[in-house]
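STRUCTURE:
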């Protein structure tokens, strides 16, 4: 004699795979499970499939005008390695970025815990604004370096710096500089 358990499916679509059968269940379905082991497996599957995982950072993107100049800056000045280069230019991409007939060239750089994405669009919309860090909407990239003073001393003469390295109340040493297209980059030694 088997004991049956009636289980209402949570507010989600769930695929249950059992033996050689696959059921596509939705929230209005009722499932009859005839043994406790299957019920525990079902609960585990439902809790895993219906929980919302926390998002993880994949990349920070910067739209640039002169891609190779920016790649040179980030690879030569900050020693970031190129992970990948690719082009995208189909209708789905143009729709996704809301730029008619968009085509883009991408370079992903390794920042250790994530990626820095440099992207150059055709057609482009060149609009440079050099704003201060206290302006709402201003973004910057923060890069941890081992010896900020050595990195600062080795910066090429044409790199625009906002300040020399400073020690903050927290003990962190920071300085800001601008890449060739005036995007803010923070160097930190923690």
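SEQUENCE:
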């Amino acid at each position: 004699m088997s004991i049956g358990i009636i289980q209402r499916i949570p507010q989600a679509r769930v695929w249950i795979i059992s033996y050689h059968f696959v059921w596509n269940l939705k929230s209005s379905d009722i499932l009859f499970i005839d043994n406790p082991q299957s019920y525990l497996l079902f609960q585990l599957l439902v809790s895993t499939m219906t929980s919302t995982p926390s998002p993880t950072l994949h990349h920070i993107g910067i739209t640039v005008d002169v891609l190779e100049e920016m790649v040179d800056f980030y690879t030569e000045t900050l020693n970031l390695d190129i992970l990948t280069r690719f082009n995208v230019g189909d209708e789905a991409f143009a729709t996704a970025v809301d730029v008619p007939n968009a085509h883009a060239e991408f370079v992903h750089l390794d920042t250790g815990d994530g990626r820095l994405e440099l992207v150059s669009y055709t057609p482009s919309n060149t609009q440079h604004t050099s704003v201060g860090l206290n302006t709402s909407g201003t973004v910057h990239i923060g890069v941890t370096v081992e010896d900020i003073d050595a990195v600062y001393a080795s910066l090429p003469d044409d790199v625009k710096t906002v300040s020399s390295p400073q020690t903050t109340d927290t003990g962190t040493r920071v300085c800001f500089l601008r890449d060739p297209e005036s995007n803010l980059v923070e160097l930190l030694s923690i």
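REMARK: The chain has three domains: 5-50, 54-128, 137-190.
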